[in-house]
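ingest -> validate -> predict -> emit
validate: passed (alphabet ok, no gaps, 298 aa)
predict: started
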Amino acid sequence: MITLSNGHSFEHMAASGALAFDGKGWPWEQPLRWAGLLDPSLFTVVIKTLTRHPRKGNLRWYNPLRCVRFMRTGAVNAVGLTNPGIEWWCEKIGPTINKNDIAMMGSILSDANTDELAEMTEMLNAFDLVGLEVNASCPNTQGEMLGNVETVIEGLTKVKAKTRFPLVVKLSVMHDIEHLVKRLEGLVEAISINTVPWAKMFPDTKSPLSKFGGGGVSGKIAQPYTWDMVQRLVALTSLPVIGPGVWDYNDIASLRMLGASAISFGSLFMRYPWRPTLYARRDTNEILPHAKEKTGNT
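emit:
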């Protein structure tokens, strides 16, 4: 479990974009929510990443699968940060959220302009969020944040100076974490992990989404990369690590064995949107009570 400096604790996270901009899920998921098969209240929900200005990206609401391909045990997506921009969110969504209903984290990205990150941070301070994620690792952009340690630290420093929320940083297997991670201590309170660029996993195979730049791979198929990163981060820092890539229920226990302090559900929401709710309920009912008994907590 992760407990942030504002007292918010969580064991299960819905990764950025898994449940849309309002934490309630995408339009095509609403029948599951009404049936109780998708329950956002079980998760700390990270909203879909926002940029300072609207970004068209590759997602089209009338054809959401044009930039997603499902694999046997995972998915590759090239959504490309499609979003209407932070001003839209602040006007239309922010005033409607209540952390007592759904605990939500903001998520922001700027490809290289760290002043934009600071500006967006101030805009989000007005809303009832439990934390703020800085996305430093979108596999579908070529911004400086992905490769430059100094830019990542500069951006986080500016965000830290402006925000009233605990910070989470979202990193990639492409980051030089050995040089980066120690400098994160004191700036962020947890680390999450993004999808793996197609070219990193399959350098000799053309992506089915090559026309969109290749995309990012997630799910069980990406575990050799993302779970290795969990282990490396746990060895390098005392910061809590949020473990990704859950596909089967037993993956939750495996991630905890690797040292993950909380569990993130991402592409599983895309492929089997009812499974994260089932897994979180089962985990809460079967595993967490035993953990409390061992520590003497009630």
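The chain has a mean pLDDT of 91.
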